[in-house]
Amino acid sequence: MKILVVAATRAELAECCHTFNLAEGNFIQHPRFDLLITGVGMTATAFALGQRLSAGYSLVVNLGIAGCYDRNIPLGSLVNVVNDEFSELGAENKEEFLTIDTLGFGKGKYAAKNKSVPLNLPEVNGITVNKVHGNKTSIAAIVNRLNPITESMEGAAVFYSCEQLDIPCIQVRSISNYVEERDRDSWKIGLAIKNLNDWAIEFLTNY
What we know:
Number of helices: 6
Radius of gyration: 17 Å
Helix content: 25-40%
Order of helices and strands: EHEEHEEEEHEEHEHEH
Distance between the termini: 12 Å
Number of strands: 11
Strand content: 25-35%
């Protein structure tokens, strides 16, 4: 049984693709693992996984960069996202946010199902968003409501899909920026991608 590596964009795993001499395309098979490039966002991710995910995989590894709410975590750091939540899935009731759980239509929070893969990375909670936060008011509101550490646009969709088929999964994110008013000059995307690829190459070589 193989690993399925899932990423939103090929750019996030460019060096990994080069190291393993992976062909172009959105679904690439390698003797050690398969790589699925989903596109950005939870909808694209769920659709791509709906086409490719199966019980034939022993582990799903979601890799990518992420924003971070905790400034004690240096940019470029790797974290193990063990819980992820669809932060916008629900309804507004004046000033109150009602989760999908509260409404009785499902659940919005999902956990990694990592039973046997030691990652030796800090374990954090994340949120998955349609709209990346970049406004002081909305940032304060989400911190007050959920107090997340990371923010991505795909993570919870991967966890959700894996839960449906009871497939073990992990999510490793490299911190490219802090969640704040949009300031591209302060981002460290290059460093985050380098560190993510270094980790991915070692993991996929030795797993």
